[in-house]
Every structure is written in C-alpha cells, then in structure tokens.
Design goal:
This protein has about 375 residues and is of the alpha/beta class. It contains 12 helices and 13 strands. The radius of gyration is 29 Å and the shape is elongated.
C-alpha cells in the first residue's frame, strides 16, 4: 500500500464489504423472520406496522458512502501528496468499516426492539359463542372510483367499514376473500381481529391480475372455505359496486342460502356514472380507458346487489359518502344463533424488546472506541485490507 493510500479511505473495499454484509444480514434476517412467523405459533411481533423503519438503513448507508467520497475529495484537495503526511494522520479503512458496522447493526437491532418480538408462555383453549363470517371484498379497478368521496375511493371506504365492523364483533370468526375476475382467500377465519386488520390494510387492486368482477365466484370461494361439519352458523358479506360480469351471483347466493349461509351485500358507489382513475407504479396517470380508447364509466348496480341479498336471505346496505351504516347488518348477524367456538390461543406473551435494546446500545457504546486513524494492531491489518 502506497503512502498516499494511507491517507485516503479505500472506497471500493468499504463498498464491497458493505454489500457483502447486507446480503448476509438480510438473508439471515428474512429467513429467521419467515421461519418464526410461519412455523412458530408462540411467536409474534407486537408492532409489525413499524417494519417501514428498516428504510432508515439504506438511507444511513447512502449517507455514509457519500461522506466517505466527500472526505476523500477534501483530502486530495487539501495539499500536494508530499505534504499530506505532515498535515493529517494516516487513515484506517478497516477501522472505519468496523465503526460503520457497529452503528449500522445497532440501528437494525434497535428497530427490531421497536417491533417488540413476543413469545407466548402457555397455550390454552378459548371458548366463545359466535358465528363464522366471510367478507368478500371487491378489489376490481372500478373500486378506485371517487364517487363516494373526492379523497377516498370505494375500496378505501370499504376497508374502513370492515374495520368498524370488526370493532363491533365479539367472539365471531372472520375471514376475508378478495375478488375481481378471480377470488382468493386473503385472511383465513380467525378471532384475531388485529391480524385481520393488518392484512386488510395491504389490499389493493394491483393484487389481482385478472380484472373484471365475479361475485358468484367470491361467494363460491367463501362456501369452500367454510367447514360445514363444525355446526357453527355462517354468513357471507359481499362488499362491491355490483358490476358483476359473470351473471352467476344470484345462483351462488341461493346455493349458499340452501346450505344455511346468509348472504348480505354492501353497495360501494353511487348510481350516477363516474370515471375510474388509472394508476401506473402507484402514480395516477389519467383515466381508465377501454381497448378502443374510450373513457371507462362505472356506477353502482344497486338492483343486482339487492337481488343477491334477497336470494341469500340477507340484508342490503348502501354506502353514503365515507360512512357505511352497518348497524342493520350487525343486527341481522347478531340474530343468527351463536354456537360455541373453540380455538387454541397463546396467552401471557412476554416482551423480548429489552434484549435487543441492550445489544443495540452495547454496539453503539462499542462504536465510540473506533476512530478512523491507523494505530496498533489495526494499523498492521490495514496493510492486508481487501
């Protein structure tokens, strides 16, 4: 290593070390996270919604690399190479990376502490009286329409309404099916309303590649999800603008009713025609157009939704602005005979955040002992840096 190189940071070596560690760290972190959340029932994160805080790490990396470049440029412009040894002390790129390594991982561990990993101590049976409710949520492109409110589209209002519905339920199992041209189970039947809300918040029309609207397919998917041998009464709630393109929704509702499942509908939209905003990569780019270049119009098919509810012996509710009066729907659900529902629940969850705070603060404390000057053993190792 030349004398000149002893006084500037080895940017390429530091960058390569950062890339290697990021691959190792995220590989270990994601593997452990998915294993714990999918395979270990007793594990959960109390604040999973704070995952976005991990975006701080790439911002920290970018700022660190930018500062290294700036310092190298400042050192080169400081004086002639022959005078540099008389003006500043030699620099250790290895010590610089170790300092970065400690601070970066301290940030990551402190973020994990904010997520608050928890572990359940004991498993016990929980018995409550309730029914099973499957919510079929329309996420077709027409649900982007802003006819109910200028700020919130039909889908956003529907999701808020479902959250209010969950806040008024006690002991009932709830699941969510999303549908457009196809239908998929988004949230299996559960009494964990908090988890249901979390998955509900992530629902967007972009999740469905096959557009269109098939209410009949959504009802059929709900029926397939139910366990009819457990003796628990069941209900289906369809939240849609009613623009059904398949035409089998009424038949599906009658089929559900024959199996003892009540089908209710909630109309999202107005009967006046309105346009549909078009989005690409999350940004609004104009209005939705058909293959001929004509602007697509959408309106609530109130009659269709009323017929579905009538066939399913349920109730029809229509959204009014951002508010959906679900009290009538709730009353009809509460009138359904409740059955005992048994579930296995982990209780007495213990917080584990304190361990991560301890490790994170220790790494931060340790980082204060690492400067950037070459000295001692680190000085010798500097000569063998990659």
């Amino acid at each position: 290593m030349s004398v000149k190189n002893n006084y500037i940071y080895s940017f390429k070596a530091i960058l390569l070390s950062i890339i290697v560690w990021e691959i190792v760290f995220w590989g270990i972190f994601l593997s452990l996270y998915f294993y714990l959340t999918e395979q270990v029932e007793a594990f959960r994160l109390e604040n999973p919604e704070l995952m976005w805080l991990f975006l701080i790490i790439p911002l920290f990396i970018a700022g660190f690399l930018r500062s290294i470049k700036w310092k190298n440029k400042a050192i080169k412009n400081l004086a002639d190479d022959r005078l540099i040894p008389y003006l500043i002390q030699p620099i250790s790129s290895l010590k610089t990376f170790i300092k970065y390594f400690l601070i970066r991982n301290a940030l990551a561990i402190l973020i994990v502490a904010l997520l608050n990993p928890q572990y359940g101590k004991g498993k016990q049976k929980a018995i409550s009286e309730g029914i099973e409710i499957m919510i079929a949520l329309d996420i077709s492109n027409s649900m982007r329409a802003l006819d109910l409110d200028t700020e919130k589209n039909r889908l956003d209002i529907a999701k808020l309404s479902i959250e209010r519905l969950l806040n008024n339920l006690h002991g009932d199992k709830v699941g969510v099916i999303i549908f457009a041209g196809d239908a998929f189970l988004q949230v299996p039947l559960t009494t964990d309303y908090r988890t249901a809300k979390m998955f509900l918040n992530s629902v967007t029309p972009d999740m469905m590649t096959n557009q269109g609207t098939s209410i009949g397919l959504a009802i059929q998917k709900a029926l397939e999800t139910f366990d009819f041998e457990n003796g628990v009464n069941k209900a289906i709630i369809v939240m849609s603008d009613g623009e059904d393109f398949e035409g089998d929704a009424i038949i599906a509702a009658k089929n559900a009713q024959e199996k003892g499942v009540m089908v209710s509908t909630v109309g999202m939209g107005t009967t006046k025609g309105t346009v549909i905003p078009d989005y690409k990569n999350g940004r609004r780019v104009g209005l939705k157009k058909d293959s001929d270049g004509n602007t697509v119009m959408t309106r609530l098919n109130q009659e269709m939704l009323m017929q579905i509810a009538q066939a399913g012996k349920g109730s029809f509710t229509m959204a009014q602005g951002t508010y959906v009066n679900l009290y009538g729907l709730l009353d009809s659900i509460k009138n359904i005979d409740k059955k005992e529902i048994e579930s296995q629940l982990y209780t007495d969850y213990e917080d584990q955040f304190q361990w991560f705070i301890g490790v994170g603060l220790f790494l931060l404390f340790l980082s204060f002992f690492f400067g950037t000057k070459r000295s001692g053993l680190i000085h010798k190792l500097q000569d063998y840096e990659i």
